[in-house]
């Protein structure tokens, strides 16, 4: 999401394409003629202009030179590159930003919208062959997404957490103590609820994996499903309904909010004592 809190994360990429197209047409250049004057293909020009691909520094410098810009495209790059996620994920931040209701279930981790900076950084550092610059970019993108919860009218956000999420010491005791304190603080918001699915529930439908459901005004409901290596965003009605039924089943076995708060606080205090 952009800094104004209302646009989806990729809005800067769309703005880049709109500015580029307007200037190209002003100079009466086709995609082919523009591509002939830079070191990129005609298809790449089209993809970036439509917002389908992410522009990088060298491409932007070349286009600015040919089209006579004076930094108007370069100034958009920092916000564009706050969105480093894989291609299949890139629709989700926009859906998330437009949603009036979000329901999430997490089997293994604190949900991204509720993560602290240090918790998120620890997760991204665990990716194979990741470099510090990539970690920093990914953390900034995650924190940017969280702005939807601090808007004047944030979405209703209901979270179910498997109890194992609290017990997995991501980043060590200090990071977890800070993270759980943040979780309690966010759960105090009137539009945010956090409930714990206890270990005593045994086998649940949640063992199939984490997911998020989003309800958007005048649009089909959407779901985001996670797996170990990839993920999927779907609006297919039957699949979204099936995932919603999984949510309902998990909600039935989750602890009430006041009991969940007590569980979180007790685990937080144990981390603080370590």
User: Whole-Å distance between the termini?
Assistant: 37 Å
List the total number of helices: 12
Order of helices and strands: HHHHHHEHHEHHEEEEHH
The class by helix and strand makeup works out as: alpha/beta
What portion of residues is helical? 40-55%
Strand-residue proportion: 5-15%
Radius of gyration: 21 Å
Please state the average pLDDT score.
88
Q: How would you describe the shape?
A: elongated
Characterize the main sheet.
6 strands, mixed
Widest β-sheet, arrangement of strands? 3-2-1-4-5-6
Strand segment count: 6
- The low-pLDDT segments are 1-9
Q: How would you describe the overall organization of this protein?
A:
The chain is α/β, with parallel strands linked by helices and 274 residues long. The protein has 12 helices and 6 strands. Strands 3-2-1-4-5-6 form a 6-stranded mixed sheet, sandwiched between helices. A hairpin with a 4-residue loop joins strand 5 and strand 6. Helix 7 (117-125) packs across helix 8 and helix 10 (173-187) packs antiparallel against helix 12 (257-273). The chain is elongated and about 65 Å long. The two termini are 37 Å apart. Residues 1-9 have low confidence and may be disordered.
In short:
The protein is 47% helix and 13% strand. It is of the alpha/beta class and 274 residues long. The longest helix has 17 residues.
Features of the shown structure:
alpha/beta; 12 helices; 13% strand; elongated; six-stranded mixed sheet; 274 residues; single chain
What are the SSEs and their pairings?
Layout: H1 11-26, H2 31-36, H3 42-50, H4 57-67, H5 77-80, H6 92-98, E1 99-106, H7 117-125, H8 132-145, E2 156-162, H9 164-167, H10 173-187, E3 192-197, E4 211-216, E5 222-226, E6 231-234, H11 237-253, H12 257-273
Parallel strand pairs: 1-2, 2-3
Antiparallel strand pairs: 1-4, 4-5, 5-6
Helix pairs in contact: 7-8, 10-12
């Amino acid at each position: 999401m952009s800094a104004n809190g209302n646009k989806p994360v990729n809005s800067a990429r769309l703005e880049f394409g709109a500015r580029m197209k307007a200037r190209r047409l002003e100079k009466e250049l086709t995609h082919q003629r523009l591509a002939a004057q830079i070191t990129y293909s005609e298809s790449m020009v089209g993809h970036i202009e439509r917002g389908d691909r992410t522009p990088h520094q060298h491409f932007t410098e070349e286009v600015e030179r040919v089209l006579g810009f004076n930094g108007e495209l370069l100034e958009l790059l920092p916000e564009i590159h706050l969105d480093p996620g894989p291609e299949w994920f890139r629709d989700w931040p926009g859906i998330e930003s437009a949603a009036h209701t979000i329901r999430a279930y997490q089997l293994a981790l604190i949900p991204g919208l509720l993560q602290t900076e240090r918790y998120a950084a620890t997760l991204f550092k665990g990716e194979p062959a990741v470099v510090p610059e990539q970690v920093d970019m990914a953390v900034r993108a995650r924190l940017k997404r969280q702005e939807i919860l601090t808007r004047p009218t944030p979405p209703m956000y209901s979270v179910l957490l498997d109890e194992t999420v609290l017990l997995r010491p991501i980043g060590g005791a200090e990071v977890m103590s800070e993270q759980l304190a943040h979780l309690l603080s966010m759960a105090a918001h009137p539009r945010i609820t956090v409930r714990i699915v206890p270990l005593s529930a045994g086998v649940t439908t949640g063992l199939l994996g984490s997911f998020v459901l989003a309800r958007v005004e005048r649009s089909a409901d959407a779901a985001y499903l996670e797996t170990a290596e990839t993920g999927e965003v779907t609006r297919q009605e039957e699949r979204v309904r099936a995932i919603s039924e999984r949510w309902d089943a998990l909600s039935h076995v989750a602890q009430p909010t006041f009991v969940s708060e007590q569980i979180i606080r007790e685990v937080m205090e144990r981390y603080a004592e370590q």
